[in-house]
Amino acid sequence: MLWRVLVLARWTLTEALRERILYVVLLFVGVLVAGSCVLTPLAPGAQGKVVADFGLACIDALGVLVILLSGCGLVRRDIERRTLEAVLCRPVTRLEYLAGKCLGLFATLCVLVAVMTAVFALLVHVSGFRWGPEYLQAIGATLLGLLIVASLAVLFSTFTSPTLAAFFTLALFAAGHLQETILRLAHSSALDRVAGVVRWLVPPLSLYDVRSAAVYGVAIPPGQFVAGAAYAALYAVTALTLAALLFQRKELK
User: What are the pLDDT digits (tens) for 9-31?
Assistant: First the structure.
């Protein structure tokens, strides 16, 4: 099973790179340089923090953009190209297929984030600011959050169109970052019930947003990072299992 999943993941990664998804890196470079030039003069005495915060935010935002543009149409593209039927004719289950696609999408994100991190570190160095290990921790936390978002994109892509899948994924991404705010605003019994549903269904993506701590040189406790990784893996597995159950009923046409 693992070998088949890895083969599908490699195929998905290769396909994504052939679609010139690395042009996202060029967009990142342009946005990062332009944003740094504009924002740095507006924050005298804190230019390094502004550049770091903006760079980390760009990595997160462009990672989500890749998921919306590429991940939400993974299943639909294979159906339209008739490649899915060829894959499932082999001894490959639908769960293995979805796991391979999600792992390949995550591998693509890892490649893009690694390249963007190198560009980001170079810009920080050229600008004369300090590069701290906290930035790598923040980027690692961002990748864990992107794993959750990628699994949601694959889930939605199994039963709806790429446009609606992108909308639902983006909505849950926004809700995940606003979850703590929603829960704090829950005071009535009705809102408490809504908050309980939100707590169970919406991933707490704000836990993976540690840019502010990284910018101010605060390291993430190892236990928090391990717990976050375990939660992201569990959420992704749960989402893919649900996706496989829904995908079993889908007609391939």
Answer: 888 888 877 776 667 777 777 77
